[in-house]
Specification:
This protein is mostly helical. 64% of the residues lie in helices and 10% in strands. The protein has helices at 2-7, 13-19, 24-36, 58-79, 84-110, and strands at 11-12, 40-44, 52-56. A hairpin with a 7-residue loop joins strand 2 (40-44) and strand 3. Helix 2 crosses helix 3 (24-36).
Length: 118
């Protein structure tokens, strides 16, 4: 959730549920936990108070960046242990995966389903 919120200014609960492929009720429970940890905050739309957005806080962004750096460092250390043949296989496979995921994401942007954001 922090990743999705770090890429977008703010998201509604429905958008969060859609982007994370989870029911709105689960997204709400997760948001409540992140609010308790001061990592996200709820914002009310000034034009329509029924609409609630969620936005990452400075603490949430800082914690998310720290986690990303720790994961990257751990992955780098593990990859350094691989021989050159396995690195080449991994490189080709990751490029293919990237191409497939980009295709899926482009299809999602053209789809009129629930994940449209402003």
């Amino acid at each position: 959730m922090l990743g999705a919120l770090s890429r977008h200014d703010k998201l509604s609960m429905s958008e969060i549920g859609c982007k994370l492929s989870m029911p709105k009720s689960h997204a709400t429970a997760l948001v409540d936990k992140l609010i308790a940890e001061e990592m996200v905050e709820r914002l009310f739309d000034p034009k329509d108070r029924r609409i609630v957005y969620v936005q990452i806080t400075a603490k949430g962004a800082e914690d998310f960046n720290t986690i990303k750096q720790e994961i990257s460092q751990e992955m780098r250390m593990r990859l350094e242990k691989l021989d050159s043949g396995k690195i080449e296989i991994l490189s080709v496979a990751s490029q293919q995966l990237k191409e497939i995921l980009l295709e899926v994401l482009l299809d999602d942007k053209n789809d009129s389903s629930c994940c449209k954001t402003k």
